Amino acid sequence: MAITRFAPSPTGYLHIGGLRTALYSYLWAKKTNGEFKLRIEDTDNARNNEDAVKAILEAFEWVGMPSDCEIEYQSKRTDIYKKYIAQLLEEGKAYKCYMSRDELDALRAAQEAAKENPRYDGTWRPEDAKVLPEIPADVEPVIRIKAPTEGAILFEDGVKGSMKFEASQVDDFVIARANGMPIYNFVVAIDDHLMGMTDVLRGDDHLSNTPKQIVIYNALGFDIPKFYHMPMINNPSGKKLSKRDGAMDVMQYKRDGYLPEALLNFLVRLGWSNGDQEIFSMDEMLELFDPNNINKSASAYNAEKLLWLNAHYIKNVSNERLANELEFFDCHLEGHDKKEMILDLSKERAQTLIELKDAITKILDVPSEYEAKGSKKFVKENTIEMLNNYLQVLESNKETLHLACDYEAVTKPFIADNELKFPQLFQPIRIALTGGTQAPSVYDIMAILGLEEVKNRLNSAMEKNFNKE
Ligand code: GLU
Fold first, then answer.
1. Is 36 exposed, middle or buried (CB count within 10 Å of its CB: 0-12, 13-18, 19+)?
2. Ligand 1 test: best mutation among 188, 199, 233, most atoms within 8 Å of CB?
3. What pLDDT, in 10s, does the model give residues 305-316?
4. Which of 55, 211, 397, 416 sits most deeply, having the most CB atoms within 10 A of its CB?
5. CA nearest 379: which of 464, 439, 446?
6. Could you tell me how many helices (H) and strands (E) the chain has, helices first?
């Protein structure tokens, strides 16, 4: 049973890299009948903003991955962190350091000049028989943890394998600032422990934090969770993903007409696979996902793949669902008696909900103009007469005209009797009904509009002579 979390810092919107981390954490928890928890890492007051928190929570609601516990906010947990700082001080596992900023800068400069890695030199670290400097009057101390001075920090990463950080790579780092506020790595370790984390999945940009967090776990005697550091998502040319490539606010995907299941399906494959399977329902993801199979190398964002998946889900979710989703785009089909027909027809070619809305609008809205190029090509001298004859055929069969096949049954003989080619009749009808020549089957459109509306639109186009000069 895995307890996992997603712990965004609300310094901006949730972007897809973050959502992928959250998805993997969510899947692993749910697959093992564990829990998935959300924690907002908002201790950095200057950079946090409430709108970002709202946007993050909204994104989680949209994709349907709720937290199994009340969402924790680090900004409300300072007292808890301070208690552990006090405990470490009392146990001699942390100490006060009175090094001033100037001294620290001088130390850094000297180390850099000697081509050494900058690290704290242990001036204030208490040791047996060591005499510490006199406490200066004007310096508020920071708190440093006593990190191991020899050996190595080892852990088995679920993605990267055996990890080893020499003790020399981790110094006695600060765990609380001079104003008493605990620092990032400290609060993450405390929270992950208190929230019961068994597995921590995060981006490999956090890998260098892990040895520090392990030092804290060890100092407090906490069990160390299993870590999975996931490689980044790059753009197709292998560079860092930029906004233009898709590293945008998750909610922008909603605004751009993506279904959340398409986005999640897309993300699950960005860094994990099950043979060459591309389509994964949530149930399949839950059955098959295993963080121990996360790819070791970075994955590449592929916008076409996302569109392809979105088209797949648009075709396969229920019409009821599509109608609900379309409300967001101001396309209201509720109560329309041909709702099913409209959706069945329009969803076949739509890659996004915006394209779906456009396809629907093209059918439902009376055209305000007629495509000039199409009219010129397909509306000939005898077209008006042909359409009038055709309208008469429709009129005399009006009792039978309901479904697309009914229109087909009367139209085919009309075409044959008049020795027409299909485009001669269909293209002017398409233009009259939808304004352009790029529309789905004429029979379907006529069935959706109904005979009265078909007559109105055909007559109107003829009256205006298809807006031809
Ligand atoms: N708050 C960190 C971030 O937004 C994540 C911390 C973690 O996963 O340990 O990048």
1. buried
2. 188
3. 999 999 999 999
4. 211
5. 464
6. 19, 12
pLDDT tens, 335-391?
A: 889 999 999 999 999 999 999 999 999 999 999 999 999 999 999 999 999 999 999
Any ligand 1 atom below 6 A from CB of 9: yes
Instruction: Find the largest Cα–Cα distance for the chain.
Output: 112
Could you please state the CATH topology (level 3) that the domain comprising 78-230 is classified under. Answer: Rossmann fold (3.40.50)
Domains of the chain by residue range: 78-230, 366-466
Count Cα atoms within 13 angstroms, Cβ side, for 436.
Answer: 9
- The single-letter code of the amino acid at 45 is N
Write the DSSP assignment of 276-317 as a string of letters: T-----HHHHHHH--GGG--SS-EE--HHHHHHHHHHHHHHS
Cβ of 7 closer than 6 Å to ligand 1, yes or no, is: yes
Strands 3-6 and 94-97: unpaired
Model-wide pTM > 0.85? yes
Give me the CATH topology for the region 366-466.
Answer: Arc Repressor Mutant, subunit A (1.10.10)
Domain 366-466 in the same topology as domain 78-230 = no
Quote the CA–CA distance of 403 and 448 in Å, as a whole number. Answer: 8
CA of 83 to the centre of ligand 1 (A): 23
